[in-house]
């Protein structure tokens, strides 16, 4: 079968005609594409439409951002020799030979944000550390005295109450940080270097940043908005004017901003405010205890448990009296979510549990033998069971001045012993400065004195008395899983 292909003759006859037709055809295609992707043009009706600006957000939140000034009196020792190394090699730094003690007033500066019309201010705990006088200055120039309502060193947050004398105050609203996404625009407001209220802008660089060592929870919003000394305690604000975090730290080699700043999420801020409202005062916040601790899921652990990812937390320890154990959780379970929020690592698990209100249940989803299972765990305060029976040791022995008590879940949490399920006698602190602080430390569990087992405080007192008569102290303690042998003659 013959096939005939017809080609217009004039195309071959005139090559210039080909170029003209192709040009007209291409222009037509461009016109079609341009009309398809054209955006509607709008004539601006207001300044806000004409000028891109964050001014509306700043006007909403900046009146509630405050400067916090603190004062404290410190006593310093001065050498009568002016630090001359020739004399100090003989007299040292104790200055027992005419040393002078002088009192100085130290001042510091930080930022904060009013979150309630009654004068409730949130800031960092390190901003008001050791403060004996606290003043709060608003952006409009008004100044008020304030008192510390609650300080939580574990989260580096503090709540102040201003003495407002009935004056109306502006305040900002806390908004959940859960709705943020990396890349969202945020602003930071504070008083860097004491120059006055300053606004900086940036984006959310990362969420759930936990590879830090800033506080006990290590769960932060990371931003590249400039944060400098003096910004601490000020708010990180979303574009709707809501406070989604409290600026707390920066990564810097020089002390200035390098575009890596960290803010405590608003969910943690809410827990501290709630604790203050329930009557807790000047103490660390009582947070939920479920009696479970875990470790990160490594690739080896994931392979052994037939997991597809290393995200999650492997439960490695359960307290016998814990709500987690009572609810059915087991050692070896891998926690993958809490209240619907995915869990990546132990820091995130601690944060999620810390934000569960006391008396409420947390929904915990785990992987067990390749299957998902859910458990409802009651969030309770760590119990004082057995009672700690705090006791100060006195006598002619090396532990004179040490404060001891019985291990229980509350004591374990306070001393950072996680979910230690043992019972026994533990060092809680010291009543005064003596050489005992060079021998033991808070958290040390006392196991033996001169080979006699210590099971209770009576055993300890009896062992110390017998050792004093013998003149030999052979002390065995345990600190973070390691045994220490101390011999004193």
Describe this structure as you would to a colleague.
With 489 residues, this protein is α+β, with helices and mostly antiparallel strands. The chain has three domains: 60-286, Thrombin, subunit H (Beta Barrel), CATH 2.40.10.120; 292-378, Pdz3 Domain; 391-488, Pdz3 Domain (Roll), CATH 2.30.42.10. 20% of the residues lie in helices and 33% in strands. The protein is built from eleven helices and 25 strands. It has helices at residues 9-13, 15-37, 47-50, 55-61, 85-91, 266-277, 299-304, 323-327, 346-354, 409-414, 457-470, and strands at 65-78, 100-116, 120-123, 133-137, 143-152, 157-162, 185-190, 198-209, 220-223, 235-238, 243-250, 261-265, 292-296, 313-318, 334-338, 341-342, 361-368, 371-378, 391-392, 402-406, 425-430, 445-449, 452-453, 473-479, 482-488. The strands form four sheets. Strands 19, 20, 21, 22, 23, 24 and 25 form a seven-stranded antiparallel β-sheet that branches. The protein has a six-stranded antiparallel barrel with strand order 1-2-3-6-5-4. The chain starts with 8 loop residues before the first helix and ends with a strand.
Tell me about the largest β-sheet: 7 strands, antiparallel
Count of runs of 4 or more consecutive helical residues? 11
Rg over CA atoms, rounded to whole Å, is 32 Å
Helix content: 10-25%
Provide the structure class. alpha+beta
Q: Can you tell me the residue ranges where pLDDT is under 50 for at least 5 consecutive residues?
A: 1-15, 21-25, 32-38, 94-98
- Portion of residues in beta strands equals 25-35%
User: For this structure, what is the CATH class of the largest domain?
Assistant: Mainly Beta
* DSSP E strands, number: 25
Number of structural domains = 3
Intertermini distance: 117 Å
Query: Mean pLDDT, nearest integer?
Result: 82
CATH architecture of the largest domain: Beta Barrel
Coarse shape: globular
CATH topology grouping of the largest domain: Thrombin, subunit H
């Amino acid at each position: 079968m013959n096939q005939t292909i017809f080609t217009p003759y004039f195309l071959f006859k005139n090559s210039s005609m080909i170029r003209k037709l192709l040009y007209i055809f291409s222009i037509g295609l461009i016109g079609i594409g341009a009309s398809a992707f054209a955006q509607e043009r709008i004539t601006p009706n207001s300044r806000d439409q004409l000028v891109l600006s964050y001014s509306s957000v700043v006007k909403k939140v900046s009146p509630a951002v405050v400067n916090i000034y603190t004062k404290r009196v410190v006593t310093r020792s001065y050498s009568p020799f002016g630090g001359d190394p020739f004399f100090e090699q003989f007299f040292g730094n104790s200055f027992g030979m005419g040393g002078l003690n002088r009192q100085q007033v130290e001042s510091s500066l930080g930022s904060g944000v009013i979150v309630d019309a009654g004068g409730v201010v949130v800031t960092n705990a390190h901003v008001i550390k050791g403060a004996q006088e606290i003043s709060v200055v608003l952006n409009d120039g008004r100044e008020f005295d304030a008192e510390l309502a609650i300080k939580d060193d574990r989260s580096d947050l503090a709540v102040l109450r201003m003495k407002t004398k009935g004056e109306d105050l502006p305040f900002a609203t806390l908004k959940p940080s859960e709705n943020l996404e990396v890349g969202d625009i945020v602003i930071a407001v504070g008083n860097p270097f004491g120059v006055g209220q300053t606004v900086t802008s940036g984006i959310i660089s990362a969420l759930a940043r936990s590879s830090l060592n800033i506080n006990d929870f290590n769960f932060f919003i990371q931003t590249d908005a400039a944060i400098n000394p003096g910004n601490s305690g000020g708010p990180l604000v979303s574009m709707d004017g809501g406070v989604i975090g409290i600026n707390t730290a920066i990564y810097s080699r020089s002390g200035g901003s390098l575009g890596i700043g960290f803010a405590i999420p608003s969910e943690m801020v809410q827990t501290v405010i709630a604790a203050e409202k329930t009557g807790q005062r000047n103490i660390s916040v009582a947070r939920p205890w479920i009696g479970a601790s875990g470790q990160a899921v490594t690739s080896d652990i994931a392979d052994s448990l037939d997991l597809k990812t290393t995200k999650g937390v492997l439960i490695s320890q359960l307290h016998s009296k814990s709500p987690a154990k009572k609810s059915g959780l087991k050692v070896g379970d891998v926690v993958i979510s809490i209240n619907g929020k995915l869990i990546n690592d132990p820091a995130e698990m601690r944060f999620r549990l810390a934000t569960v209100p006391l008396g409420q249940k947390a929904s915990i989803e785990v992987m067990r033998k390749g299957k998902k299972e859910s458990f409802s765990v009651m969030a309770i305060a760590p119990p004082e069971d057995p009672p700690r029976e705090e006791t100060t040791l006195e006598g002619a022995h090396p532990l004179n001045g040490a404060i001891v008590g019985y291990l229980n879940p509350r004591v374990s949490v306070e001393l950072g012993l996680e979910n230690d399920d043992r019972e026994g006698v533990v060092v809680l602190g010291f009543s005064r400065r003596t050489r005992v602080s060079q021998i033991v430390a808070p958290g040390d569990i006392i196991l033996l004195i001169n080979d006699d087992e210590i099971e209770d405080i009576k055993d300890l007192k009896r062992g110390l008395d017998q050792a004093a008569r013998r003149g030999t102290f052979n002390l065995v303690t345990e600190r973070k899983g390691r045994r220490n042998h101390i011999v004193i003659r």
